[in-house]
Amino acid sequence: MLNNVAVEKSIPPQNDQVLCLTAADVRHTLRGVNPQKAAGSDILGRVLKECADQLADVLTDIFNISLSCTVVLTCFKTTTIAPVPKKPMVSCLIDYHPIALTSIIMKCFERLIMRHIKTQLPPFLDPLQFVYHSNRSTDEAISTTLHLALTHLDKKGTYVRMLFIDFSSIFNTIVPQHLIGKLSLLGLNTSIYNWMLDFLIGRPQSR
Asked: Which residue of 18, 70, 78, 160 could cross-link 194, Cys pair, CB 3.0 to 4.6 Å?
């Protein structure tokens, strides 16, 4: 969440510089691919990992062209839906859980973009936001919540009410234009949030 007061006081200048990835960064990311992860409709993770040296330069060019044009290739956005049984004996469609398999190459690309975004995030993000912050975890969120609640309860005549909300299918409910509006307040590269807008729209599925 954004601290609105801080945002109004400290809106960073617009950044029109296009992100340019290096072959070294791409190579490092490819070498970190988990070969056990299921692939989408593209290359197996094992091949990407073992051929990182041979593929790094080619993929670097593809990624940088994508960033400069703010366009994500359709093949990178295509999701393969695989039905996985929820229980040993299935009798109808609701007994299956749909698993979305996405391009491993695109996951590597996303990881590189996320790494860049984390270095660009301004200091006025909500201190109680734990997701996408380095060295923060769910355990820390729980510990902080308990500490705040118990500290408050130490005072006489007080009580605590908590509301827990579980957002289901949150990725599918994102309104791209609203997200881009939020990102524009963070001072990220203009090309980055335009690229992200293209990434979020027009996502075909296959089975």
From this structure: 70
Q: In whole angstroms, what is the distance from residue 25 CA to residue 29 CA?
A: 6
- Following CA atoms 60, 66, 69, 73 in sequence, which dihedral angle do they give, to the nearest 10 degrees? 150
Kind plus residue range of the DSSP H or E element containing 58: helix 52-69
Cα–Cα distance between 93 and 48 in angstroms, integer? 34
Give residue 17's identity as a one-letter amino acid code: Q
Joined tokens for residue 194:
């335009």
Indicate the SS3 state at residue 82.
strand
Q: Look up residue 189 and give its DSSP letter.
A: B
Nearest CA among 47, 49, 38, 58 for reference residue 102: 38
pTM of the predicted model as reported, rounded to 2 decimal places:
0.72
What distances in angstroms separate CA 157 from CA 145, 147, 152, 160, one per listed residue?
20, 18, 10, 11
* Residue 49 to residue 170: CA distance in whole angstroms: 30
Per-residue model confidence as pLDDT tens digits over 185-205: 777 778 888 898 898 888 777
